[in-house]
């Protein structure tokens, strides 16, 4: 009697197992057929483009990652050249994959920090004890006297994936040997001090200030700020003063005697070179290193 019950249970278990096995196999077959029928063919050129990209997913191209950019550039070849970290070599490889010619897109852009004030150059209201973040500090009005200067808490350095920015004595400083021009630092700075500039030359002249205060106010807050005196604009038309601030037209810049004179006449030394081999910024009242050697 007991043996018969055991055999009956065993038989039922086998039937149930076989039924489940049959159902599972059926579902697997259906899924296999569906996957083949609904499979989206990937253009092999997308994979080839993806392989030549740096695969940093930095977003400089305007897309979330290299995979999305590879698909987009296949559909719109005019997007060639948007991969800033890859540079001209990557653009040329993509063009070869697509059997296209790459047009000259002009000088590559690199960041310039429009501030040269280190900790000792600035006037502070009180010691900041909040979150070590430029965004957090910028929300307060009493961090430092100049509301246009570098806060120096390193939001840009944390945004950079290439270790190309460091805060040196309170000032964000670009390492142009490592910089790829990915734009992450420029989009992160809450005071918009970092500008992406076309580097037509290895070193570019710039006005390292962003203050719109009048000259007297600027002098009271910073030793090396632009006072809007206009001496630079009197030397060459690549400079113009607006809202108490001198600005340089980077597209017109050439290292000429006039630009050298404009730099040396700046009373606060705020006009200086930025780049991989840029000379050290001169002190106010002194000539540049290049001029001193002539």
**How many individual helices?**
11
Number of domains: 2
Distance separating the two termini:
116 Å
Major sheet attributes: 2 strands, antiparallel
Q: Mean pLDDT across all residues, rounded?
A: 85
Which class do the helix and strand fractions yield? alpha+beta
Poorly predicted regions? 289-294
CATH architecture of the largest domain: 2-Layer Sandwich
Question: Into which percentage range does the β-strand content fall?
Answer: 5-15%
Oligomer: single chain
Major β-sheet strand ordering: 1-4
| Helical fraction | 25-40%
Rg calc: 30 Å
Q: How does the overall form come out from the CA principal axes?
A: elongated
Number of strands: 8
Question: What does the model show?
Answer:
The protein has 294 residues and is an alpha+beta fold. The protein folds into two domains: 44-97, Orthogonal Bundle (3-methyladenine DNA Glycosylase II, Chain A, domain 3); 109-281, Alpha-Beta Plaits (2-Layer Sandwich). 36% of the residues lie in helices and 12% in strands. The protein has eleven helices and eight strands. It has helices at residues 2-38, 44-52, 66-75, 87-97, 134-138, 155-159, 184-188, 215-221, 231-235, 257-265, 289-292; strands at 109-113, 165-168, 171-174, 194-198, 203-207, 239-242, 245-248, 271-275. Strands 1-4 form a two-stranded antiparallel sheet. Helix 2 (44-52) packs across helix 3 and helix 2 (44-52) runs antiparallel to helix 4 (87-97). The N and C termini lie far apart (116 Å).
């Amino acid at each position: 009697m007991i043996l018969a019950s055991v055999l009956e249970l065993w038989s039922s278990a086998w039937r149930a197992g076989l039924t489940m096995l049959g159902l599972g196999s059926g579902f697997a077959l259906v899924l296999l057929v569906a996957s083949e029928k609904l499979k989206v063919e990937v253009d092999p050129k997308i994979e080839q483009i993806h392989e030549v990209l740096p695969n940093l997913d930095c977003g400089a191209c305007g897309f979330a990652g290299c995979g999305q950019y590879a698909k987009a550039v296949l559909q719109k070849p005019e997007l060639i050249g948007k991969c800033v970290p890859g540079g001209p070599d990557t653009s040329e490889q993509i063009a070869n994959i697509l059997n296209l010619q790459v047009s000259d897109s002009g000088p590559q852009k690199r960041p310039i920090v429009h501030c040269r004030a280190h900790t000792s150059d600035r006037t502070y209201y009180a010691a900041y004890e909040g979150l070590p973040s430029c965004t957090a500090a910028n929300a307060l009005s009493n961090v430092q006297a100049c509301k246009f200067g570098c806060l120096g808490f390193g939001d840009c350095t944390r945004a950079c994936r290439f270790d190309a920015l460091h805060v040196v004595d309170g000032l964000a400083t670009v390492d142009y040997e490592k910089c790829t021009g990915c734009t992450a630092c420029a989009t992160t700075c809450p005071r918009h001090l970092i500008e992406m500039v076309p580097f037509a030359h290895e070193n570019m002249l710039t006005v390292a200030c962003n203050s719109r205060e009048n000259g007297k106010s600027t002098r009271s807050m910073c030793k090396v700020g632009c006072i809007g005196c206009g001496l630079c604009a009197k030397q060459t038309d690549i400079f113009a003063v607006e809202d108490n601030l001198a600005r340089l037209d980077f597209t017109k810049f050439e290292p000429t005697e006039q630009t050298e004179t404009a730099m040396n006449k700046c009373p606060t030394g705020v006009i200086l070179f930025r780049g991989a081999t840029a000379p050290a910024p001169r002190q106010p009242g002194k000539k540049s290193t290049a001029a001193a050697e002539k």
